[in-house]
Write a structure and sequence with these properties.
The protein is 14% helix and 41% strand. With 155 residues, it is mainly beta. The protein has a four-stranded antiparallel beta sheet with strand order 1-4-2-3, with helices on one face. It has a four-stranded antiparallel beta sheet with strand order 5-6-7-8, with no helix packed on it. Strands 9-10 form a two-stranded antiparallel sheet. The longest helix has 13 residues. The chain is globular.
């Protein structure tokens, strides 16, 4: 994911100009705490984060808001769509291999993009059906934002 280091003056200027579109996180934060999700934030929350960034730019990074997939999920009210993200498992040694499967994290609160278990998120089983293909994938996807490009390939 493209990441702007707010300690860098050019990155900080970009982040300050685009707070409403970005996710801003504390550098040493964890569990989805101490962050701003720009598109879901109020103007007051954005201005509060602006002040925090100006006061301590080295304490923050920013990333684009990702469009998370959704998946039918069993919740108290029945089956409902919830946002998910997949954390693939990559084994690194003499060769680098992606394992078929991974950890799927789910945002259990309706409309939430926060999948962290410490904030009420959960996990789902991840199943890969079918036979693996031989050789590396040739499918890639690129995204450009703020002068940074992210390229992803499948497996």
């Amino acid at each position: 994911v493209p990441t702007w280091m707010c300690r860098k003056p050019d990155d900080l200027q970009y982040v300050l100009a685009h707070l409403k579109d970005l996710v801003v996180k504390e550098v040493h934060g964890a569990g989805g705490y101490g962050m701003l999700i720009g598109p879901a934030a109020t103007q007051a929350e954005i201005e509060e984060f602006r002040r925090a960034l100006i006061a301590n730019p080295a304490g923050y990074i920013a990333q684009p808001t990702l469009s998370l997939s959704s998946c039918p999920t069993y919740v108290d009210s029945g089956i409902a769509p919830r946002h998910i993200d997949l954390r693939p498992f990559v084994l690194s040694g003499r060769e680098v291999q992606m394992v078929a499967g991974g950890l799927t994290r789910v945002a259990l609160q309706e409309g939430s993009l926060v999948v962290n278990s410490s904030q009420g998120g959960g996990t789902k089983d991840t199943w890969v059906l079918g036979e693996p293909t031989a050789g590396p994938s040739v499918q890639t996807q690129s995204q450009t934002m703020g002068g940074m490009t992210q390229t992803q390939g499948g497996f």
